[in-house]
Amino acid sequence: MSDQASAVHGTDRGFAKLDLELNDYPGPLKTSLFGIQHVLVMFTAMVGGPLIVARLLNLPDETRIAMLSGTMIGCGVATMISALGLGFIGPRLPIVMGVFYIFIGPIVAIAKEVSLAAAMTALIIGGLVQFAWSPLIGKLHRFFPPIVTGTTILLIGTGLMKIGINVASGFGTPAFAKPLTIGLAALMIVLILVITRFSKGFIRALSLFITMVIGYVVAAAFGLIDLGTVAKADWVTLPKPFPYGGLEWPGMIAVITVVVCFFATAVETTGHTLAVSRIVGVPQEGWRIRGAVSNDGIGSSLSALFGGMALTSYSQNIGVISLTGVGSRFVVAFGGAFLIVMALVPKVGAIIALMPNAVLGGVLLFMFGMVASVGIDIIGSNMKSRRDALIVASSLALGLGIQAAPPGAFEAIPQALRILVTDGIVMGILLAMFLNIVLPREAERAPAPAH
């Protein structure tokens, strides 16, 4: 990138070099293909949340479909707003919105104790609280200097590795740890390496899409894809508001628990927004954080209105943009529109949902590795003192330690707080912010006198 271009975008984006900048529009064909690619990497994570809730609550097929449809409607609309903006809502960045798994526990608990309608009411209330405090959260960017931002991104990348390997190995499915499953996941990583190393321009930018298509075809050749589910899916369906009944008060403890979860999303969304801002080369400004957090809230309330789950910005964006060089927000806006199409045309969603876990998991592992490498790049460029090393070391120790803790390690903590405390990424980020505030900055040493 030229010095002039760097000056225009205003920030150091590290090793990330973009072929498509934030406001570039590559034409309808490339926009659609890149947009679908962006969504494909994150689609299984989006639908995985509602499917887990449906299984835990033993929901009938009609209710399960309503939850999937509502979630995808929310993700699609919120992704478009995230990329294009709506007033002060949305950061106007290439960020795809998806389900935050921290909400699974509260939704299941509220649904069992009160009703599923009450769980959706709690999400709607929590989303509105998130929207209301977004101006305050927007001021947090001053507490995210590069060393904290780099630590945040490294925590996100390494923290999500467990999810990536679980998906890649087929954990919880009949294909778990089978040679074919491991082989497919490994093939995905090799294909990404080969395509990105030996191709240029359009092909390299579409490397993830090409990799997943090849993986899909290989999986089909081995009989891992059953197109019967596509034949059974409807052509068109229209989502209905309040599919489980009207608003129902879930109880104060339930509301507080959900609001705590939304605080966790606000912290992670702040880190994601600052990271994506850096990669696409725009200043890390408070209004973008406010826009992202308010979009989390409104998008979550909209999703819950149609029976879906609460949303957050997805960290996979960091990896996709870094690897493909596609940082156009118009590409991501098309991805949001494609999500809405999948919600309204179930046959399209059914085809995508057949993507084998090994195929997606191999890609996710690579993406999370790219996310971590962005964090390492920022830390390496900004670690100037023992103070900085203490911030990084303490935050990684806490964040990764929590995620590696054995089951039952946090049973002594009250349930409402346990949801927050057991999220290693959020706790690591909060510790990095806290230490950055309280640790005194070390004075720079004066140069030694000449002899």
Briefly characterize the structure.
The chain has 451 residues and is mostly helical. 68% of the residues lie in helices and 1% in strands.
Descriptive labels:
two-stranded antiparallel sheet, single chain, 1% strand, mainly alpha, globular, 451 residues, disordered N terminus
The general outline is globular
Helical residue percent band: 55-70%
Spatial gap, N to C terminus = 43 Å
The structural class is: mainly alpha
What is the mean pLDDT? 85
How much of the residues is beta strand, in percent? under 5%
Number of strands: 2
- Biggest sheet character: 2 strands, antiparallel
Spell out the helices and strands N to C: HHHEHHHHHHHHHHHEHHHHHHH
Number of helices: 21
Radius of gyration, in angstroms, nearest whole number: 22 Å
Strand order of the largest sheet: 1-2
Low-confidence stretches: 1-10
Description of the molecule:
- It is a single chain.
- This protein has helices at 3-9, 28-57, 61-84, 104-113, 116-132, 134-137, 146-159, 161-168, 179-198, 201-205, 207-221, 228-232, 252-280, 286-305, 316-324, 329-344, 346-353, 357-382, 386-404, 415-421, 424-438; strands spanning 97-99, 311-313.
- The longest helix has 30 residues, at 28-57.
- It is built from 21 helices and two strands.
- The chain has a two-stranded antiparallel sheet with strand order 1-2.
- With 451 residues, the protein is mostly helical.
- Helices cover 68% and strands 1% of the residues.
- The radius of gyration is 22 Å and the shape is globular.
